[in-house]
Design a protein that fits this description.
homotetramer, globular, Rossmann fold, 6 helices, 8 strands
Chain lengths: 183, 183, 183, 183
């Protein structure tokens, strides 16, 4: 069962990005993945900003990234790019931390004007981390993420394309296993 | 006397980026600017990462940005882009925080392979902050920043082009004042 | 009277980008500029694609760029970036062809999802050409460019912000002259 | 036998990019691929620049892209990005021309300062074309491409990492076939 780590990089306590990340984690569990979600904002701020990988909580996340088969990287768009919070975590990972992993970038934003931040801002950073297979990313408008009790639903038009991308990511992970086991 | 704020975004306590920023501040003072340097790493980490602009130290920096005529934005290259630490500060500035200001991006890195991070990663974020005049930025190789006691010197070949860029930035600021005063 | 060259990079014979470029040229003439517009598609294709700067028509454009005080670079968004046609012309310019010039990037597209192409795709190329002052660029939605006889008008909401950007560009050019004359 | 199309986008008649593309085509043939190489500069310039897909030579290339299982996209770095010549071809492809294909970006340049053009300039365009699996790209220094008679060799240090990337691309293509056949 390919394992997936979901990193959610919104600074906000009541974040649509985080709620969307949990929603995608549920979908991935239904498709036979062991999924763990990490909110970067719950890591110790001082250790994060100083890149202190000896901090136990930070060290544990670095190990979790190393152990995962796939990584979902979720961020709101701030100032035409990913959040500084998310980048602080990515900064302290080893140079090729994403080598050999499938990676799914998901970005949320208030306006369609931010769509290209996925490919021009986030994807080059994931490439720099050695990610060999960054699947097609996706941008979700804030207004398409609708609160339903404690959880969220996706607006009709937004659900199908995002699920296609997420399911494609899951397929990549399921397809790789045998290849790797056989080698 | 046009005022300049230097934001230095390295997470490291013994940072070449920070030492270079101080060196440029000296140069700018000699050219008749009031210059203040802020190391982002000295701001309270929790307030920074949660975007808490009510924190007094953070609020004071937001005001200092608003009051400055020019801003130098200095960052090391991490994972093909600016540091998450620097971006955390930029994230909590108001949407058009750099409107009407001259901005000088300076990036340091261990390899010439990171040069384009100035124009492809940092500059679009400065544009998103409303900067109307981002002058030509500059990339400085770590190995060209040489410690001399507590301060740093620049290697022979690196000094002239960087000073040209810094002096050009200063010229822009001195040229603008009368124009603005006259209007 | 600061001179301006408008480069319009749409491959289409009936292009909104080209019509918008002419519209902006009119506005700039009213603000006391000598303005010339060049449609890249009217240059000889073989010379353009092979970078043949001995071709008389190409050579003449290279000289016109060198002689201009300001350059407007206009392109439609194709595949998340500027057109290949525009880039073919930029490719054959000398390395620092835009040094010392003010440059205004203007991009048109069918969807707001392409907005960031101005800052992430076009602006880094203009920086690589040595442009020291690329003013704030602008993105215009195709649907805001309305044909009126042979010319175009801009939709109400689109006109004001674009004119502000264009007038700002003009102000930069008028302000620089005396500075340069004085030196 | 998965088929591969190599698009080589240098405007120059005696191009290192083109020679490198042929060299990679040889390697891929040895690894059991049907490989075809297209030099974009040999397509009719007028049809290319006007996006005329009714031109027989252009139409044939559009079909060849559609039929290929994998595509190598090779370009020199000009002005911090891919060549306008290459982009002219990409511009006239249908919107999702690379959907379902594996894509390998290869960029050549005179200085390591251009390395990030692979990930910040070329890759976002490939994503916009719907490419679902762009493998790790590679940057090759001009000085590492050494002429040997009519062909080229790669300098010692450059050969191994590039072959690893190319072989990884080949592995992706060989691994996909059964998956697709089985579905």
């Amino acid at each position: 069962m390919p394992s997936i780590l979901v990193l959610s990089g919104s600074p906000s306590a009541t974040s649509r990005t985080a709620a969307l990340a949990e929603h995608l984690a549920l979908r991935l569990r239904e498709r036979d993945h062991r999924v763990r979600t990490i909110r970067v904002r719950e890591l110790p701020p001082a250790a994060l900003l100083s890149g202190d990988t000896r901090d136990p909580a930070v060290a544990e996340v670095v190990e979790a990234v190393a152990a995962a088969d796939g990584v979902v990287v979720a961020s709101p768009v701030y100032k035409a790019a990913y959040s500084g919070l998310l980048k602080s975590l990515l900064d302290l990972l080893p140079q090729f931390a994403l080598a050999g992993k499938a990676v799914l970038p998901v970005v949320t934003g208030g306006s369609p004007a931010h769509v290209l931040a996925v490919d021009y801002a986030l994807r080059p950073v994931l490439s720099a981390l050695g990610a060999h297979h960054v699947v097609q990313g996706w941008f979700v408008l804030d207004s398409h993420i609708v609160a339903v009790g404690d959880a969220v639903e996706l607006a009709e038009g937004a659900r199908r394309p995002l699920y296609e991308v997420v399911d494609g990511f899951s397929d990549v992970l399921h397809a790789r296993r045998p290849l790797i086991d056989a080698s």
